[in-house]
Every structure is written in C-alpha cells, then in structure tokens.
Design goal:
Layout lengths: L1 H24 L12 E4 L2 E8 L4 H4 L23 E4 L16 E10 L5 E7 L5 E6 L2 E7 L5 E4 L7 E10 L24 E7 L2 E9 L6 E9 L6 E6 L4 E6 L5 E7 L13 E6 L4 E6 L4 E4 L2 E4 L2 E2 L2 E6 L2 E2 L4 E2 L3 H14 L3 E4 L6 H10 L2 E5 L13 H16 L5 E8 L8 H15 L4 E6 L3 E3 L2 E4 L10 E4 L16 E4 L6 E5 L20 H15 L5 E4 L7 E2 L12 E2 L12 H12 L1
Parallel strand pairs: 21-24, 21-33, 24-25, 25-26, 26-27, 27-30, 29-31, 30-32, 32-33
Antiparallel strand pairs: 1-10, 2-3, 2-4, 4-9, 5-8, 5-10, 6-7, 6-9, 11-12, 12-15, 13-14, 13-16, 16-17, 18-19, 19-20, 22-23, 28-29, 34-35
Helix pairs in contact: 3-4, 5-6, 7-8
C-alpha cells in the first residue's frame, strides 16, 4: 500500500514540476497567499490616461517622454488628467467611462530600496481583460484573463529611489477570449483587485498544497515548493493547536513531500473550523488559516466528511449591488455572503469566473462552501488554435490560487457550452483530465443547458457528463420555456442515472414592486416570479438523485443586453433581491424551502 501511495505521489510531483516549468515560461504565475507576505501595497490613487482611440501604443505612453528641444512637444501626459482608485473598475468611477470597453492607461510611482539578498515581485490580483505592464519605461510582461492573479519579478529592474509602473488595461471583448464576445454580465474593466510589491529572500516558499488525502478524514497529503538557489532545505509544518510539528526536506528542485495524520476537527458549514498552519523553511516562513474536509461523490450522493449533504446554493455575481460596481473589498464580499447565509445557503456558486480571493476566504470563514468557475461561457471558439493554452492557463491560475481553501469544493470548467461546437468536447475533456491531475480532492463539474424538454419530460444527456462528477444543469422552465404539464408530473430521462443531479440555475425575472397579472410574464411581476419558484420546488420532488439546487440568482445585477426600459433598464432582474436590497416574494419561498432541507 505504501509503495502504491508513493508511486502516486511521485507521479503527482512529476506532473506538478512539468506544469510548473511550463507555467513559469509564461511569466504569469503568482505566488499563493500573497496577503501573508512581506508586501507594500500600491493600492490607492493612480493617474490615468483614457485612450478611446487606442493611440497609446503608437504614442508609447509608457516611455513618458519629455521635450528635449524648444520645438519638441509630446501629445500625451498623465499630469493634469484624472485619477482612479485601485482596486476598482474604471466604469463605475467616472461617468464618461460607464460603458467603456477599451483601453485605460494607469500610472503609479513608488520609492524602493531593495537589499542585495532580497527579491521583489510586482503582484496583481486581477486586471480585466488584457494587461501590459511597464516598469521605468520597459515592458516587463503581459497577462490575459480578467479574474486571476499574476506577477512579475522585478528584482533586477527596480531602481533605488523612485520607480514608475504603467499598466495598459484593456477590457475589449475578444472572439477567442475567455469569455468571448457575448456574456450576460457587466464587463467591468481596469485594475479591479489589489496591487502589491512583495519582497522575499533569495529562496522563499513559493507554493504549497495541504489538504486531506482523498478518501481519508485524518491524513494530510501535499507538498511545499521553494523557489531560489538554496533549494535543498529542512522544512517544518506546524499546527500549534494540534501540537503538530512535521519535518520534511526539499529536494534539489525545491519540492518537499508532506504526509501526516492528526486528530483533526473537520471543517463543515455547521462548524467552519480552520487551523493556523505555519510553514517554515530555513529561509522563509508563511502562515495560513487552513481547514480540512472531505468532499466526494459516492454512488448518487454527495458526501461531506463522509456524510450525505444536500447542497442549498445560490448564484452570485461579483458586483456590489448598492454601488453598481465590481465587488473587490472584504466589505463588498460580506454584503453578498451575508445575504446568502440569510437565505439559508450552505454553498455559493461564484459565477461565472473566479471571484476575488477575499470572497473565497470570507465564505470559508462563514461556513459557506464555494463553487469556483472559469469563464468558459457559451459561444467559446474551441476550434481556435490559441484556446487550449488559454483554457489551461486560466484553470491552473484558479486552482493554484484556491487549492488550500477547504471551502472550495467544486472546480467548474464550463457553463452552457454546446456539444455541436467544433472541438468543444475534445478541448473540455482534456481540460478536465488536467484539472483532476492537479487536484483530485474536489469535485469537477461541467454545467449544461442543452437538455431536451418535451411532453413534460426532461431528456438529459451530453458527452461532458461522462467527465463531470455531477449532472449539473441549467433549466428555466416557466420563464424561457413554458411548462408542458403539471410540475408534480414531470418525468426525467437521464442518460447517467447513477450520478447525483444538481439544478445549477433556474428562475425568472421580476422588478421589485411590479404589480400586474400573475400569469403573464410580460409585466415582470413578483407574483409571476414567485409562481415559477413554487412550481420549480414542486418539480424538484420528481428529480431522481437530486443533491442540490441553486437559483439564479441572489441580487439583480447589471447586464447591458437587458434592454426593456420599463422593467430591466440594463439589469438582469432574476435576483431574489433587488439591487437596492429589497427582498422579492420569491426570496421568501426559497428561504422556506431551504429550511426544510
């Protein structure tokens, strides 16, 4: 058994090193747990140039040229222009940028004196969607993807004294982007999450993975990765509360194996227990709050810590409803998560992209399981030659950031893609296999909405369900598709009858306070929406192997495709709560349902 376990672990480590080397070649990876590092924040006011014509590249604004002769003039300047707050989207900060999809150039100056035995990294929580980063007039790198962290080492580029960072942030939609041209949420652009300078010693703890071994409730299995010239070191993992002091050693590549057992108090929504875990090498120390739990599918049930659990979920977009702005702060996260807890949820689906790191950690602390998702959303050009690498990079950046968050129980790799799309099946099957190779301790899911509905019967099939731990499906019966019979008499023909079924989206739109006919959708009434929820709950009793449900969604949110100016006015109105915090009638129906589960 030990030989089998060691073979598995060495295979995992070999794969990890291959991944690591490939990943570093991209120059985009970010060390995990940035908030626990020796960091200097660059948040606050940044000077900006708004560039609707896209002329900044031609002007080379990152060089900040100055006139050399009396006849010289420069047709750009950060001085005299506006300021924007970082972190924060640019759309909600200035009225002229409300609907901007294009380029804004950001500038920040900082002073730094780096010691000779130190390294320095410029770390971004996220920039939407394309980021080109310049330091002191030199381009240091680029990053594609609006919702995951990245960094650049600037040890040999930072100057003693004053330095200048310039970021080109462009949120134009791309046909071969993730997401693509069409999506149903607001395209907030800019530097939307924290920016930090992180200082380390020459060899530092770059990464680690400490979670329960799959199938175990008391054994921690993982690894620690050092980065630097002094790679072979003695390493300790300490959990003071449990009197754990585990010793291991890193190899010549800086990788150390970890495996130990302890009488752990397991994390759960009822008892969101986390431990202070201290990782010490000879040259670095990192502390983290880590919980331990088991999540698995056995037969047609989802088991948390070995016990069946019904998932009471809600979909959430990363938007502060009261501000109409990208949610970025801990206070923003608490607004959304407290509302989910009040509804009666034990899981939040963070749709349709990785939300801010503080959203994930706050959910875990509050006892909410987390569904993490990459923005593979409808109409993705899977046949594009660049897509496989983009898919893999985005998946790896999500998993890399959140793999130690025990609250994260699901990696979601796609939402509402279509089996007839060229190369869709091949690309997503390969992505699933790579995700499971990185982390087999969580559920991996694809969400499908192409099931048939005829004669009051659902015909559920999709080749991706072969590779999904849950039959996760979005259905809007009662809104986009009328009922074809009594909800209580709905039939189900599921091609994978032995898997748990999860209703990942359902609902309908209503404007808070809208009165009118209860049986006509055209008036966006709360009564019509409430009836949808009543019928859906009645239908849930007909679903075989139902393991959970997840209404779409918690709050009304901005979406420019919603153009009914009487009832929508640029908002998707499927929220159980309005953007002003007013609970709709359907909220109370869902709240009562969750009390019974």
């Amino acid at each position: 058994m030990n030989k089998q376990r060691n073979t598995f672990l060495m295979g995992y480590i070999t794969l990890f090193l291959i991944v690591l080397n490939t990943y570093y070649a991209l120059g985009q990876t970010a060390m995990i747990n940035a908030q626990a590092r020796n960091a200097k924040s660059l948040n606050g006011d940044w000077q900006v140039i708004i560039d609707p014509a896209g002329a900044g590249d031609y002007r080379q604004v990152w060089q900040e040229k100055k006139p050399q002769k009396k006849t010289d003039f420069i047709e750009y300047s950060f001085d005299g222009g506006p300021m924007l707050k970082v972190p924060g989207d640019f759309n909600s900060q200035r009225c002229e940028l409300t609907y901007t999809e294009g380029t804004v150039w950001y500038k920040k100056q900082f002073n730094y004196n780096l010691k000779s035995d130190r390294r320095l990294f410029l770390h971004f929580g996220a920039v939407n969607y394309l980021a080109d980063v310049y330091l002191n007039g030199e381009k240091i790198g680029s990053h594609e993807g609006g919702y995951t962290p990245f960094q650049f080492e600037i040890t040999n580029k930072v100057k003693e004294g004053e330095n200048t960072v310039i970021v080109k942030a462009n949120n134009n939609r791309k046909g071969n982007g993730l997401p693509g041209y069409g999506y149903d949420w607001f395209n907030y652009g800019g530097i939307t999450r924290d920016v930090d300078l992180i200082e380390t010693l020459n060899t530092y703890i770059e990464d680690y993975f400490l979670q329960l071994k799959k199938g175990s409730l008391d054994t921690v299995l993982g690894w620690i990765q050092l980065n630097g010239d002094n790679a072979k070191q003695n390493i300790q993992v300490k959990i003071p509360e449990l009197h754990v002091d585990y010793q291991t050693w890193s190899d010549e590549k800086g990788l150390a194996k970890v495996e130990f057992s302890s009488g752990l108090q397991l994390w759960s929504p009822e008892n969101p227990k986390r431990y202070k875990v201290i990782i010490e090498s000879e040259t670095d120390t990192v502390a983290d709050n880590i919980g331990f739990r088991s999540i698995e599918v056995v037969g047609n049930q989802v088991l948390l810590n070995g016990n069946p659990i019904f998932i009471k979920a809600v979909n959430i977009h990363e938007e502060n409803p009261y501000k109409g702005a990208r949610a970025s702060s801990i206070d923003d996260a608490k607004i959304l998560l407290n509302a989910a807890k009040e509804l009666g949820c034990n899981l939040v689906r963070l749709a349709h992209y990785p939300h801010a790191e503080n959203m994930v950690s706050e959910a875990e602390e509050m006892g909410l399981m987390v569904w993490d998702e990459i923005p593979v959303y409808q109409h993705i050009q899977f046949s594009d030659s660049l897509l496989p690498q983009k898919l893999e990079t985005m998946m790896r950046e999500m998993v890399n950031r959140d793999k130690n968050r025990c609250g994260v129980v699901i990696w979601s790799l796609s939402n509402e893609t279509y089996p007839g799309t060229p190369n869709r099946n091949e690309a997503l099957i390969e992505l699933t296999q790579k995700c499971r190779a990185l982390d087999s301790t969580r559920l991996t899911v694809h969400v499908i909405n192409t099931q048939g509905y005829d004669n009051n019967t659902f015909n559920v099939w999709d080749p991706l369900y072969n590779y999904s731990d849950l039959i996760a499906l979005n259905e809007y019966i009662g809104w986009y598709i009328p009922w074809q019979g009594k909800p209580s008499e709905t039939k189900w023909n599921i091609a994978f009858p032995d898997k748990p079924v999860f209703i990942s989206e359902f609902g309908g739109e209503a404007l808070y306070g809208s009165d009118g006919p209860t049986d006509e959708a055209a008036y966006w009434t709360e009564e019509y929406q409430a009836n949808i929820y009543k019928d859906q709950i009645e239908m849930f009793n007909t679903i075989p192997n139902l393991c959970g449900v997840c209404p779409w969604l918690l709050f009304d949110y901005r979406s420019l495709g919603r153009m009914n100016q009487l009832y929508q006015n640029g908002y998707n109105r499927k929220g159980l709560i309005s953007e002003k915090g007013q609970k709709k009638k359907a909220w109370y129906i869902m709240n009562e349902y969750y009390k019974t589960k």
